[in-house]
Design goal:
Elements: H1 7-12, H2 24-27, H3 31-44, E1 61-65, E2 80-84, H4 90-102
Antiparallel strand pairs: 1-2
Length: 103
């Protein structure tokens, strides 16, 4: 089997000045503990932090890190917030804003 010739140019052009590598198993909560956190924070306040819209459990919101993990934020309840999702949701807007700060 031959080598892929198209992968090398794309890998060399990646800019990794600010973004630190993240290993999911080490830095991010997953599985049952994550679902417990989602339920706990949603029960505390089921409204989107940005627009105030009431969200439905479990698919009406995203659990967002206030300071993203790739920028050094910790994976703790105090760094999490509920944001509505969907095509015009606040979670997508915040993610785009976070990514624009990297440029």
């Amino acid at each position: 089997m031959g080598k892929l010739k198209t992968l090398r140019p794309r890998v060399q052009t990646m800019d990794v000045r600010i973004v630190k590598p993240m290993v999911i198993a080490d830095n991010r909560m997953t599985g049952y503990k994550l679902q417990q956190r989602r339920m706990r924070l949603w029960r505390h306040n089921p409204c989107c932090v940005k627009c105030g819209r009431v969200t439905e459990y479990p698919h009406g919101f995203e659990l967002d890190h206030i300071v993203p993990l790739y920028l050094g934020g910790e994976d703790a309840d105090g760094n999490c917030q509920i944001l509505c999702n969907g095509p015009e949701g606040c979670h997508g807007k915040k993610t785009r804003d976070d990514m624009n700060q990297l440029k």
